[in-house]
Write a structure and sequence with these properties.
This protein has about 375 residues and is an alpha/beta fold. The protein has 13 helices and twelve strands. It has a four-stranded antiparallel sheet with strand order 3-4-7-8. The protein has a two-stranded parallel sheet with strand order 1-2. The chain has a two-stranded antiparallel ribbon with strand order 5-6. Helix 12 crosses helix 13. The longest helix has 16 residues. The radius of gyration is 23 Å and the shape is elongated.
Length: about 375
């Protein structure tokens, strides 16, 4: 398999932020990672990106763990559902508990002059941004604090910025082929608010290195982050990882997926009576096409059939009718007893007590 050199162990990750309900786009990305890991006898890591202290909530983390478990997407390393203890040797698996690790690498960049403290206030940066827009230029940080040796009088550091070198960043995406960016357009990016407060691009790079991640499979909305992360990897002497950016999920009219779907929690679909097998099957077909005409797959089938290289570049349309049809097809495959057990859970969630024997008779009829 050209995607995976023989000597390389496959380690992939899903890294959700516990700042809102577990939505279908994230679950689809998790499924693609899980399938890739299972195909290559690899490791599927669940990492909680909770550095946003104000918006992160424990209930959302619990929902993420519960949702993945319901679908059968078991993780090999990460927080556990019941005890929330760590498993594996690369933990902890919550970013909020990894601050000392990030601090070490931020200090390394500062010491090596690859990063610097920036004293520009938000207001000053916004005024600079508006001036560049008025001139028809792409807005970016001018580098005002790049070469400051002494702190300006009366000013304290606002953020830590990474020196972006003047270069073209190119990488081979498993799905999209060769992708390249002109780093001159970025400006020096913010990697942390302080040594104890890393931001996404920096923390993700450190975690992927420390957790020995081999492949980063994520949504195409992250593709503009990739060159910045590659430059950080090089500055820190980290090994490269392989990237695959999966297409966005679209409305039937091919516009960006509406909040009606994106903000509907996976667990809401569960409460409506959708089967986990149907959801997994539906999400696998969002952006991936199997060989042949069959579209009804169990999770075990998908492990055999799924191929990351057959994932399309263009957006994948969310088709509610398709989901309903797949749910019906998977219902057909259940035994009477399995349907009865599913109905018992469905009714119990609504506070309806139903005699099991009565349900058996109704289902068989």
């Amino acid at each position: 398999d050209a995607m995976v050199p023989q000597a390389e162990l496959v380690r992939v990750r899903i890294a959700p932020s516990p700042t809102g309900p577990l939505h279908m786009g994230l679950v689809r990305t998790a499924l693609f990672n899980w399938l890739f890991a299972r195909q290559h006898n690899g490791t599927f890591v669940l990492r909680i990106e909770d550095t946003d202290k104000e918006r992160s909530e424990k209930r959302f983390e619990t929902e993420i763990l519960e949702g993945f478990s319901w679908l059968g997407l078991d993780w090999d390393e990460g927080p556990e559902i019941k005890s929330l203890e760590y498993k594996g040797s690369y933990g902890p698996y919550r970013q909020s508990e990894r601050i000392e690790i990030y601090k070490k690498y931020i200090q390394k960049l500062l010491k090596g002059k690859r990063a610097y403290h920036c004293y520009c206030t938000k207001e000053e940066f916004e005024a600079e941004r508006q001036a560049m827009l008025a001139q028809g230029l792409p807005p970016k940080y001018s580098g005002h604090c790049r070469d400051i040796t002494l702190p300006p009088a009366g000013k304290s550091p606002q953020v830590i910025r990474f020196r972006i070198p003047e270069t073209i960043v190119a990488f081979k995406d498993i799905i999209r082929g060769k992708v390249q960016f002109d780093a001159n357009l970025f400006g020096d990016i913010i990697i942390a608010k302080s040594e104890e407060e890393p931001l996404y691009n920096f923390a993700a790079v450190v975690d992927d290195f420390e957790m020995n991640i081999s492949h980063v499979i994520r949504g195409e909305d992250h593709i503009s982050n990739t060159p910045k992360q590659i430059l950080l990897q090089k500055a820190l002497d980290f090994r490269e990882v392989a990237y695959a950016h999966v297409p966005l999920i679209l409305n039937p009219d091919r516009s960006k997926l509406s909040k009606r779907y994106t903000e509907t929690s996976l667990l809401e679909y569960r409460s409506r009576g959708y089967l986990p097998e149907a959801i997994v099957n539906f999400l696998a077909l969002l952006g991936w096409h199997p060989e042949g005409d069959n579209e009804v797959f169990a999770l075990s089938d998908l492990i055999k059939k799924f191929d990351l290289r057959r994932v399309q570049k263009g957006g994948a349309v969310f088709n509610q009718e398709k989901l309903d049809w797949l749910n019906k097809e998977h219902l057909k495959n259940l035994s009477n007893e399995e349907i009865v057990n599913a109905l018992l859970l469905f009714f119990k969630a609504r506070g309806i007590e139903t005699p099991k024997e009565l349900l058996r008779k109704i289902v068989s009829a």
